[in-house]
Amino acid sequence: MRNFQEVVYMVPRKIYPPQDAFVQQANYTTEREVFDDLQFWEEQASRLDWFAPWDQVLEGEFPFVKWFVNGKINASYNCLDRHLMSWRKNKAALIFEGEPGDQKVMTYKDLHRETSKFANVLKELGVEKGDIVTIYLPVMTEAVVAMLACARIGAIHSLVFGGFAPHALAERIKDSQSKILLTADGYWRRGEVIRTKDKVDEALEECPSVETVVVVSRVANAIRMKRNRDHWYHELMNYADNHCEAEVMDSEDTLFIKYTSGATGKPKGVVHTTGGYLTGASSTHYSVLDIKEEDVYWCAGDIEWITGHSYTVYGPLSNGATVILYEGAPDFPQKDRIWEIIEKYGVSIFYTSPTAVRMFMKWGNKWFADHDISTLRLLGSVGETMNPEAWTWFYEEVGKGRCPIVDTWWQTETGSIMISPLPGMTSLKPGSVATPLPGIAAEVVDDEGRPVPRGRNGYLVIKKPWPSMIRNIYKDTQKFLDTYWSVFDGAFYTGDGAYVDEDGYYWISGRVDDVINVSGYRLGSAELESAVLMHPLASEAAAIGMNDKNKRSAVCIFVTLTEGASPSEALEQEIVERIVEEIGSFAKPERVYFTKNLPKTRGGKIMRRLLRDVAEGRELGDTSTLLDVTVIDELMIRGGK
Ligand code: WTA
């Protein structure tokens, strides 16, 4: 495990108390002292519609727990059917804006009908309860329809990021052994067509399990359709029946799996179940994102990301919100596109990432000077630490000093927001994620699992079960136990470092395991390393995440070469190419260091924290366990280049 450096105490420059105008209308205003977690969660679950009530709120202990035991529920029913009984049926559920400027609005009634039809299509194609459906779609209404259709019939969806290269897509399909895949012919990105279907064709060469591919036509480009395997979405939908009853699911039935990078090379399928997950996503979307009937809500990220699952689909739709979906790039045709969309639809809640905020800040205020963005009332952030400069800019310039910012900490594994301000109650400190939400038992501990004093860095852990927590790693319970439960007794290991200040506010310092978080994308160091090692001249590799002073992190590769090979720019380029080909261009390393040796412990483990010190130009931490100290001198010379 990583040894922590003494924390550099960040003294917040300014504290922002909640403003009266916001407080007066906020969903959560009174300090809620939670005396009884189970009662609290029971109240939250009661916000949903259940076919049959649970007979016990929580059963079991970490790591194997069941929430809302024997309760019967359907996520698709909660996102659709229950809204049809009121005027909400004609409310816009999804507003899609294509990159070329095309627009499509689907009411709750529309979304219900399309979902029911596609659920019938899936059934016709032989999909049954418990089967896994891989969804490899860009941001489009059909992605939401497909997710809700799976949920409707009890099939498990597995969404895969569109930026992944064919091999990375194939890895995820192979692990899930899904027989059916849903994709598109392509989508628009900066005026160009991204040829999604070609990537699928390439990936499927490695995946014999897939018998059926359903293709949504988005860009109408010429693609190859394989006879008996590939079908057009619109053709199948033509014949589908409008009516499909939502399946009665057990609270603990799997709703979806979401692959994410871990410490080992193989991606892990994080398993989420129905009742607990929906309770977490729906209740936090109400409390943290403060959703109201009249809001226009935009979570600007891929649906594939866990953020998209919880805060574009299940949270907002279960709350009957109007949700924006945008297909394309934020700077196309020019750098005001985001602000133009906010103005066009009157977006009131905008949930984005620190990377995006830093980019908007760099582009400058002139891009929204001519747009009316005064409908905004709440801003949100997720994925990385928001540096105070970016925070302040977002607050003052975009929010005009009126809109609270909810900086939300959570993970694929936690399913929903865990630590965050409650916008009508919490004073904000730029750079801090504030305090654990009601019902969440977060703590910062040392190597032995003891709570650390305030102001000292340690490991962020969760000490009590919560409804939307990860239930397992798909088909790999051992990995589930090793990754999250073997580090500390009786606590969920998040893999993040943090400290708590004198007011009880949490400050996240980033990953302390082998996961690299770049612009909100999670990459496993082992995944990157195995891509590098596919180069015949690479003999050993270590991948690390390197932070700059704005807490922006980038991938950095250290590589040793085979006998006789020597470093060159061409070789560096080839190594970068391997990563792009195997994983995708979003994983491109910022730097490649060639070195004769990698620093290792006597046990042969690569000491990544020393490499991090080198890359970030810091004084080296403890080197006492290092096998060969001379390695470091050589690295330092390289690091200083
Ligand atoms: C990081 C995304 C600082 C963290 C929902 C976590 C954050 C990882 C924040 C999970 C935040 C997420 N401040 N860091 N507000 N939110 N992270 O699984 O390192 O894609 O462990 O889930 O992102 O990334 P994931």
Automatic annotation (TrEMBL):
Keyword Zinc-finger annotated: no
Boundaries of every AMP-dependent synthetase/ligase domain copy: 89-466
Top-level EC class as recorded in UniProt: ligase
Domain AMP-binding enzyme C-terminal: 527-605
Domain spans labelled Acetyl-coenzyme A synthetase N-terminal: 37-79
NCBIfam families referenced in this protein's UniProt entry, alphabetically: Ac_CoA_lig_AcsA (TIGR02188), PRK00174.1 (NF001208)
Family, as annotated: Belongs to the ATP-dependent AMP-binding enzyme family.
Protein name (record): Acetate--CoA ligase
Organism from which the protein derives: Alkalibacter rhizosphaerae
Organism placement in taxonomy: Bacteria, Bacillati, Bacillota, Clostridia, Eubacteriales
